């Protein structure tokens, strides 16, 4: 049986984007497991309840990181599909998606480590904004190619 790249060779140029997206999906799945182990352990956060404590509490950061990742993953995935459907050049799509994934993984690592102070625009915010802008660039490129 053929895989999608064999059946549709024009998609092969986008394979780095699919790989990067798969890495991000795995990271979010790992975050889900870590949320259970690190944040929902006895004495920490309670499932379905408002978060306790603040940025200084690792269980708070673990829960917020996972929630942030699950909020951002669908937007990247949809922008990626739209960019491919619109025939945005593969080189641009691959770079944007790869950099977005790097920014998201950096955001995760920075947030878990507790670097930065609450309410301060530090490295975590910078990593988040970079990922957000890259996702925006991908969506705008898709829209441009769809209407052009």
UniProtKB/TrEMBL annotation:
> Which UniProt key words apply to this protein?
Membrane, Transmembrane, Transmembrane helix
Q: Please classify the protein's predominant subcellular localization into one broad category.
A: membrane
TM ranges are: 12-41, 73-97, 126-147
Q: Which Pfam families match?
A: MAPEG (PF01124)
The UniProt entry's coiled-coil ranges are: none
The subcellular localization recorded is: Membrane
Highest rank taxon of the organism:
Bacteria
Question: PANTHER family from the entry?
Answer: BLR7753 PROTEIN, INNER MEMBRANE PROTEIN
Mind telling me what this protein is named?
A: MAPEG family protein
Q: Which organism is it from?
A: Pseudahrensia aquimaris
